[in-house]
Every structure is written in C-alpha cells, then in structure tokens.
Design a protein that fits this description.
By secondary structure, this protein is an alpha+beta fold. The chain folds into two domains: 4-117, D-amino Acid Aminotransferase, Chain A, domain 1, CATH 3.30.470; 124-285, D-amino Acid Aminotransferase, Chain A, domain 2 (Alpha-Beta Barrel). The chain contains eight helices and 15 strands. Strands 7, 8, 9, 10, 11, 12, 13, 14 and 15 form a nine-stranded mixed sheet that branches. Strands 2-1-6-5-3-4 form a six-stranded antiparallel sheet. A hairpin with a 2-residue loop joins strand 14 and strand 15 (261-262). The longest helix has 16 residues, at 270-285. The two termini are 27 Å apart. It binds 4'-deoxy-4'-aminopyridoxal-5'-phosphate. The site of 4'-deoxy-4'-aminopyridoxal-5'-phosphate (PMP) has 14 residues, from helix 6 and strand 13.
C-alpha cells in the first residue's frame, strides 16, 4: 500500500494527492509551511512548530481553518495511517484556488496538506567529519521587505543561495544580511562556540527563528556554555573555536571550514558533540 497524504481532512494515495494549478500556493508561493520530525511516534516540539505555523499564517493574513489542536491530531492520524514512528512531516497551508491575478481575497479558501514520509537522514559521514560551507553572494531578504520569521512557501531567496553552494561543490552556505552581518544558512541556523560562549545571530539579523535553535540555546547552560544572541560578521565565524548548524532535519551538524578557512582545529568540536548527544536525549524526552 502506498503513502497516504492528507488534504483538508481527507486522505489520498500519494499519486492522487493533488492541488489545483490555480492554487495561489503554486502560482505565487502564497502559503506557509512547517518541516517537523517525529521520533518514536512522538512529534518533536509539536507546540513550537504548530505555533510557528499559526504565526506565519497570521503574518500573511491567512486564516487557518483548523485549530492548533485539530492540526496536531491530524498530524498524528497521518503518521498512524502510514504506520510511521520516525518520520518527517511536511505541514502546509496554501491560500487556495484563486484567479490568475495576485489578489488573495479572490481565493476560495485555504488548503491544508499533511505529508508524513520516511526521513531522509544526512549521511553519518557529515556528523563525523563536519561540513564545509561558503558565504553566499546572495543576500538574505531584509526583514523590512518580508519578515524572515515567516516560513513561507516562497523559498527562492534561499534556493538561489543553495544553487550557489551546489555550484561551489558544498552542501550549505551562510547568507549575510543587507548590513553584512551573518544571518543563517539556506535551510539551517548557525552557531559558533568561542571560549565558553555559544553565540547565534538574533532575529533582527534576518533569520527564521528555528525550533532546533531554541532547543540548543536552552541546553547550553547544562553543557557549560553561556548562550547569547549577537550580531556577527564573517571574521567572527573564521575565528570561532567551533561552528555548527541546527535544523529539524539536520539536528546539529558540525562545520569545519568556511570558504578557504579552517574552523578550530578542522575537526568537529567537543561542545558540538556534547550538544548533539544532549539534543538526541531531548528527542527521547519530548512528550509529543
Ligand atoms: N532557517 C531556515 C531558512 C530554514 O528553512 C530552517 C529549516 N526549517 C531553519 C533555519 C531551521 O529551523 P528549524 O530548526 O525550525 O527546523
């Protein structure tokens, strides 16, 4: 039996799970989404993800036709129907079917989609040897143009940066904001360790406020680190003792090089390893 996809309360076989070509999610990237993980049948940081989805929707004046609790129940139904316990969940809400013009008020109503699929893990080699990054020439969209906390269906700013990374032969890249400060990676947040300080750029640096980022900041004191949000320039990254990325799919990935510079001793750092093992314990504790 194939995978079943949820659309507006109904389940469809993966091949038959379709959204209209008139949906403004497709025509204009007009919609919001979440990327979520389930560990051992429990949806990790469920409230944080569902909360962010509702805040994203509110920011683009999109009324989600379900309550946060209903959405949670429907995510669990989707997991169960597909017999999945460790999974990646893609939850999205589009503006719905409209006319060919951009006017969202002409759209018939939001479409809620839930896809639960097996999780494609990053290669183990990345966690053991670390990742090399570039700093992309593509600048992060300024938050006065569009609030970067909104996880919208329009990811072209990040996709263009990702294309730069692929052309440079690396998997990820660091995007700077219009002030030349470090923002985030194309699909992950960034951290550095310097001495006993764990630093990550603030929301004002034009980032998506990652759920994993918050988990890591909360774990910092127990790992003997002082977590701070502060503006950084590329030189701060080059001079870091350790560097790592955080994201729902990636969890915590060590960074060992940026551009042609080595970070620390060129090996994944000890604090990074500690935080990753603490993070994994956290995934076992989360009630879902
Ligand atoms: N920044 C961007 C641009 C992202 O797409 C993601 C992944 N959703 C993140 C950061 C990390 O966020 P999270 O920890 O909530 O997955």
């Amino acid at each position: 039996m194939g995978l079943k996809v949820y659309i507006n309360g109904e389940f469809f076989e993966k091949g038959q799970a379709c959204i209209s070509v008139y949906d403004h999610g497709l025509l204009y990237g007009d919609g919001v989404f979440e990327g979520i993980r389930a560990y051992n049948g429990r949806i990790f940081r469920r409230h944080e993800h569902v909360g962010r989805l509702f805040r994203s929707a509110e920011a683009i004046a999109l009324q989600i036709p379900l309550s946060p609790e209903q959405i949670s129940q429907d995510m669990y139904r989707t997991l169960e129907l597909n017999g999945l316990r460790d999974a990646y969940i893609r939850l999205l809400v589009t503006r719905g079917i409209g006319l060919l013009g951009i006017d969202p008020s002409k759209c018939a109503g939001p479409q809620v989609v839930i896809i639960a699929d097996s999780i494609e893990l990053y290669p183990q080699e990345l966690y053991e040897n670390g990742l090399k990054l570039i700093i992309t020439k593509t600048v992060r969209t300024p938050r006065y143009s569009f609030d970067t906390r909104v996880k919208s269906l329009n990811y072209l700013n990040n996709i263009i940066a990702k294309i730069e990374c692929l052309r440079a032969g690396v998997m990820e890249g660091i995007m700077l904001n219009t002030d030349g400060k470090v923002a985030e990676c194309t699909g992950d947040n960034i951290f550095i360790v310097k001495g006993s300080q764990l630093a990550t750029p603030p929301v004002s640096a034009c980032i998506l406020e990652g759920v994993t980022r918050k988990v890591v900041m909360d774990l910092a004191p127990e790992a003997g680190l002082e977590a701070v949000e502060r503006d950084m320039v590329p030189e701060d990254l080059y001079a870091a003792d350790e560097c790592f990325l955080t994201g729902t799919a990636a969890e915590i990935v060590p960074v060992v090089g940026i551009d042609d510079r080595q970070i620390g001793d060129g090996r994944p750092g000890a604090h990074t390893a500690t935080l990753l093992s603490m993070f994994r314990q956290e995934t076992e504790k989360d009630p879902g």
